[in-house]
Amino acid sequence: MLEHDVIIVGGGLAGCRAALEIKRTDPNLDVALVAKTHPIRSHSVAAQGGMAATLKNVDVEDTWEAHAFDTVKGSDYLADQDAVEILTREAADVVIDLEHMGVLFSRLPDGRIAQRAFGGHSNRRTCYAADKTGHAILHELVNNLKRNGVRLYDEWYVMQLIVEQGQAKGVVMFRIRDSKVQVVRAKVVMFATGGYGRVYNTTSNDYASTGDGLAMSAFAGVPLEDMEFVQFHPTGMYPVGVLLSEAVRGEGAYLINANGDRFMATYAPSRMELAPRDITSRAIVREIRAGRGIHPDGSAGGPFIYLDLRHMGREKIMSRIPFCWEEAHRLLGIDAVHEPIPVRPTVHYSMGGIPVNTDGQVRSGPDGLIEGFFAAGEAACVSVHGANRLGSNSLLECIVYGRRTGAAIARYIQDRKLPDINEQSYIRSTQEQINTLMNQSGTIRIGALRQNFQDCMTQHCGVFRTEELMQEGLNQLKQLQQQYEQIYLDDKGTTWNTELIEALELRSLMVVGEIILTSALNRKESRGAHCREDYTERDDTNFLKHTMAFYSPAGIDLNYLPVAITRFEPKERKY
């Protein structure tokens, strides 16, 4: 049996920053990080736009309090304000710390870190590295892990979180290279496994974003918080769904409809293209529904609108947002200097996740905590985003709460012993699960079932929702879950069996999808990214609270947790 003081699952920004902080706090601790890809290929590397912090390099009057208010307002008042205060107070410090590690942020002419405008922010406070910010940060963090002696298990798929008597004791993991199953016991387990965009059929997320950490937590009896709040990013390239960063609009790009109008003037006149993402996504869908979308031939009535950069000029496009130009040219053959880019909303981010307190320790419900279990990043819900995340706050959350959770783990672990685990029983049950999947003689291909499931979620729990639509989706999902027992695998091998991994990931996706739909069905209001056409108003009297969803094969049980309000009283959200 493998053993470490700390095992961190997930190789993105939150997991790497936590690992680094643990080693900085106590270099003698034995820290290991496991990821199903190499950490450099974690989805954090795709984060483009930047990281918000009140450095005051561009807007000298900016304050952390203004950043906090923008974040709470953007969240439609569902964010926990104590958590938001920590996020925004510590933002400038973590940016400077990253710079000292070697992160190459873009600069002002005088050498200070540059800052740009971003949706929902009242000041220009987003620090960036062109439009490849996640890439710049992640590379430096991974280099620092190696320098600090963190053990990396890359291309291992974690199959189970071991929780016994309210205590996390370790994980069961599967080496993709040769199908070896290993139990790892640890004094602390931390999940930083990212989001679940592949629950939907069009997403900016990579193929690895299958909600494994959320599903494993749910299987272990951990509730998932606020899973109904799914962020649709307004500008996914049509038809591929690949993201064009909000930085593009931050640098001055327009959204135009089939009539050539900058239609955001109708929906958010004070912010225009830099309104929060939920408002902008709904505006685009409404324009398309009203027949002002665009066809590929340029005529009206089509499925997308245009993101227009042409007025910005080649020099600005190539220096500030080169990746946007590269992606449009590579995937669509469009030269964005001379042609507008077709876009429509694409699933992007999970506001909900594994519930944690402000030290990253996982909640067992509205009151208790699970011993030895921590989480951070997109997989966690601390909740700094509430019902809608502001752009450039996600990288910030990963770094602030990755660092904070790492420091908390280093303190927490000092008087803990390695737990006792019956290794053979976990290896045996895991091997049985694998053998069952490998040998079942079904009639359904994984790809077909996954596509039907993703289509079901997209159709029944999208930008706009109703009770009838979601109930129909839940009924369909139950039928699709039953079909999972009928999938068959062509690949019976033990070397790089990616088909087996896809089967395990599909199980995760289906659990996460059921929790999203059930939580959404029971929130009878519109708030942030959760927009119901049968309950069009926000209902603070009944729903100013966090959903806590407990999974079981028999169904989902819901409980609720109060929102922490410390500084900003909820009021109507207008832009």
TrEMBL record:
The keyword NADP does not apply. The active site is at R277 (proton acceptor). It is a peripheral membrane protein. It comes from the Bacteria. Pfam families: FAD_binding_2, Succ_DH_flav_C. This is Succinate dehydrogenase flavoprotein subunit. Pathway: Carbohydrate metabolism; tricarboxylic acid cycle; fumarate from succinate (bacterial route): step 1/1. Residues 463-490 form a coiled coil. Keywords: Coiled coil, Electron transport, FAD, Flavoprotein, Membrane, Oxidoreductase, Transport, Ubiquinone. It comes from Allocoleopsis franciscana PCC 7113. InterPro entries: FAD-dep_OxRdtase_2_FAD-bd, FAD/NAD-bd_sf, FRD_SDH_FAD_BS, Fum_R/Succ_DH_flav-like_C_sf, Fum_Rdtase/Succ_DH_flav-like_C, SdhA/FrdA/AprA, Succ_DH/fumarate_Rdtase_cat_sf, Succ_Dhase_FrdA_Gneg. It catalyses: a quinone + succinate = fumarate + a quinol. The lineage of its organism: Bacteria, Bacillati, Cyanobacteriota, Cyanophyceae, Coleofasciculales.
